[in-house]
Amino acid sequence: MTGLPQTELLPAHPVARANDVDEAHEAVTRTYLPHRLEVLDRGTDLDMRLNAVRMGAVTAGYLRYGSAVRLGTVDAGGYHVNIPVTGRCEQRCGASEPVFAGPGRAAVFMPGHPADLRWGAGCAQLCLMIERHELELELERQLGRPLGERPRFTTTMDLDTPAARSWLEVLALLEREADRPGGITHHPAAAAHLQSLVIAGLLLAQPSNYSDHLHAPAAPAPPRALRRAVELIEDEPGLPWTSSTLAREVSISVRALQEGFQRWFGLPPMAYLRDVRLTRVHDELAVADPDGTTIAGVAARWGFLHAGRFSTAYRRKFGGLPSETLHGRHPAKGR
């Protein structure tokens, strides 16, 4: 199981449909990186399909070949994860053992190493590419210190671990929202947060030379750092804060920030931010002109882009609907 739909992904973002080898090669090179493409079965149509979306430092693409092919690269500039959606693919990063990717198993590739992929006929994969610089920055934020060496992941990814399943849920969200008109990937603040979730999720889910450090207890956050984090949230709740950017601003690790908020406020920093934003929405609606104000517009200004989830959170906090606040029909609760 991959946790992803067993159908064509990202259909709203087509890049290429090709039976011509040169056309297929050019499309994948343009989207990902230079490579060699060899068709192993000339008796079957190539029937290559590529859909892809780029979100900051993350490129996610659905790549399928109808015939058996072999792909090779000299090296890669970023980190890559190939997650089979249908079929199987034998994949190797550098001199490591081959990964026989299929249901429940993905392949991970490091920058600076060649790759060799033997793609089975009809195999489709979600191919993820993450810029090296951004992944290493995210790792530094998680650790709260500069890196001593480049991150090295194990090349086989077990998709059935709890951490991997959680990460796949993030990728499924990315895939759904990228295809949804007006989805969160189209809004810079939400897209930045989702990019951080994708990268941090990989760092936490996949074993690497930093796993022991990532899972070790974090040093307690200094109270002054937590106070400053709260000030930043209260003063500028409309900024596209993530746990990573907030931790960087107060010069502590992401884990120290998260554990500090949980210890002192009883909730994670992003939940604290959501609570502040809900209060700002409530305050704005309470004094707004009902004839010239839309709830969706006010909510979007404060970073709430999913109407259903926003309404549920709002009602849980204030005991009524946003429309009731706008029309002055219920008192403030839970402020």
CATH topology of the largest domain: Jelly Rolls
Strand-pairing-aware structural class: alpha+beta
Q: What is the overall pLDDT average?
A: 91
- Indicate the low-confidence ranges by residue numbers: none
| Distance from first to last alpha carbon | 43 Å
What do we call the CATH homologous superfamily of the largest domain? Answer: Jelly Rolls
CATH-scheme architecture of the largest domain: Sandwich
> What order do the strands of the largest sheet run in, or round the barrel if closed?
1-3-4-11-6-9-12
Using the coordinates above, name the CATH class of the largest domain.
Mainly Beta
In DSSP terms (H or I, runs of 4 or more residues), the helix count works out at: 12
What's the structural domain tally? 2
| Cα gyration radius (Å) | 22 Å
| Number of extended strands | 12
Helical proportion? 40-55%
What share of the residues does DSSP label as strand, in percent? 15-25%
User: How would you sum up the global shape?
Assistant: globular
Q: Biggest sheet: strands, sense, closure?
A: 7 strands, antiparallel
Give me the strand/helix succession.
Answer: EHEEEEEEEEEEHEHHHHHHHHHH
